[in-house]
Design brief:
The protein has 469 residues and is α/β, with parallel strands linked by helices. It has 2 domains: 237 residues, P-loop containing nucleotide triphosphate hydrolases (Rossmann fold, 3-Layer(aba) Sandwich); 211 residues, Class I glutamine amidotransferase (GATase) domain (Rossmann fold). The chain has 13 helices and 26 strands. β25 and β26 form a beta hairpin. α1 crosses α7 and α5 packs parallel to α6. The longest helix is centred in the C-terminal third of the chain and has 17 residues. It is globular and about 70 Å long.
């Protein structure tokens, strides 16, 4: 059993009344301002998310960690926070959706539940567009719904001038007895532009230096000193003694390391840091590879990991890199273990249909993929492995998540799959995890802390392939 101890970890949860309230804008802006003041800052994202976490990573200069009580359970989520939080500065935990929105009507796995788990004060971001005193009623309702959630203050977003701010501020402070800690003015242009799946990624943003300047301007009204003081007043947090890293792999220094490539460029950015760390912890040497600029895969790889991203917005560039696609197909045919998630599945398909155009892809999987105008799969997934594959034992239960606008243009009976879908959409009706050669391609994203079998399976396949060579 882990020994428990307590630590002083200054922290704030940035929550909202709904999705698109401005939580990421406020979280990123605060991180930029804290760094300008030489205050160490670490950031965390509640729930499964790559893009918001990428912006938090950009703003803080440190990998942002996801805290997902559904996937990893409360104890492991808290342990991950304690392991990676800073005790010298401030820790920003960005919520998701509305503060009480969870997996059911009780708000299970909500931002509010995570705040209580971590004993963190909550700063509520309120969208002020086209509302005044009604905003106070919404804040008051949040306070009354669960008295155990500690609301520390409010930040107003999309405020239309000084009078609008004054009325909102007076209404909230008088009715709710909460301080308004700043007001971000309404802007005709979004500082963090969005598209399908959410925000544009930092790697695709046209000018991050200019964005930093605009964020500093937007954050001028924020009471940073008071926010920092509130974070430092957070109670001690209890967690396991930090005698070692959060367990997410099986270190084995007695074996020769294997080389595992992973695609990393502006088309493929969806990787949880814990997944890459788990492979390294288990003895892998990671090799970053660009699908956009590399002429071919390195010949000495023992396995390949292709995460998600936006292959559709890079479809022309990916398709035009025919030598790389050919080398990827040849590697799969000779039995290189390839683990692919979502965008990786799209890259491995025969062709990607995007905006009424066809873009040839690697052709490892025997079907095309098309992009739709609305999400085809969105939410948590549960799979049961029930077929042969290179990575998981049959009977293994997997918990993950999916968010994809694409779908495979094939029937479930025409392509071998390894997993039954208990919850979610997957590749086909009731099926996920297409298996071809030693390749497994799935729409489900897995987190290594929640699914330690993932790193074990990838490493086992890599070592078998290395030994066969």
């Amino acid at each position: 059993m882990d020994r428990l101890h307590t630590r002083a970890l200054p922290r704030l949860v940035i929550a909202g009344l709904s999705g698109d309230a401005g939580k990421t804008l406020v979280s990123v802006a605060l991180a930029v301002i804290f760094r300008d003041r030489d205050v160490p800052v670490c950031a965390f994202k509640k729930g499964p998310d790559y893009i918001d976490a990428a912006w938090l990573t950009w703003a803080t200069g440190h990998p942002a960690r996801n805290l997902d009580t559904y996937l990893m359970g409360g104890d492991l989520a808290r342990r991950s926070f304690v392991e990676h939080a800073t005790g010298d500065g401030v820790n920003i935990i960005e919520g998701n959706r509305g503060v009480y929105d969870g997996g059911d009507a009780r708000g299970t796995h909500s931002t509010a539940q995570l705040a209580k788990l971590l004993g963190a004060p909550v700063v509520l971001v309120v969208d002020g567009a086209k509302v005044t005193r009604t905003a106070a009623a919404c804040v008051l309702g949040c306070q009354a719904l669960d008295p155990d959630v500690r609301f520390a203050g409010v930040i107003l977003n999309r405020v239309s001038g000084s009078r609008h701010e004054r009325v909102l501020r007076e209404a909230i402070e008088a009715t709710c007895e909460l301080p308004v800690l700043g007001a971000i003015p309404r802007s005709d242009a979004r500082l963090l532009p969005g598209r399908h799946l959410g925000l544009v990624t930092p790697e695709e943003h046209p000018e991050t230096a200019e964005l930093g300047r605009q964020l500093r301007i937007a954050a001028q009204s924020l009471d940073v000193d008071r926010l920092l003081a509130m974070a430092r007043q957070a109670p001690m947090v209890e967690g396991p003694a930090l005698d070692g890293p959060v367990p997410h792999g099986e270190p084995d220094s007695a074996v020769v390391p294997v080389r595992i490539g992973f695609l990393l460029d502006s088309a493929f950015t969806f990787y949880y840091p814990e997944n890459l760390e788990a492979l390294e912890c288990a003895g892998a040497r990671l090799v970053p590879i660009s699908a956009l600029t590399s002429a071919e895969l390195p010949a000495d790889l023992d396995a390949l990991y292709i995460g998600g991203g936006f292959p559709e917005t890079h479809a022309a560039a990916l398709s035009s890199n025919a030598p790389f696609l050919s080398s990827l197909r040849r590697a799969a045919e000779r039995g290189l273990p390839i683990y692919a998630e979502c965008g990786g599945l799209m890259l491995l398909s025969r062709a990607l249909w995007w905006q009424q155009r066809k873009y040839p892809m690697a052709g490892v999987l025997p079907f095309d993929v098309e992009m739709l105008a609305t999400p085809h799969g969105h939410g948590y997934t549960q799979l049961v492995v029930d077929g042969p594959n290179p990575f998981f034992a049959e009977g293994t239960a997997l918990k993950g998540h999916e968010f994809h606008y694409s779908r495979a243009l094939a029937g479930p009976d025409s392509v071998p799959t390894a997993c039954a879908v208990v919850r979610g959409t997957g590749c086909f009706a009731g099926r996920d995890a297409v298996v071809v050669h030693q390749t497994l391609a799935s729409y489900t994203h897995l987190h290594a802390l929640a699914t330690p079998q993932w790193a074990t399976g990838v490493m086992g396949a890599a070592r078998r392939f290395s030994g066969s060579r």
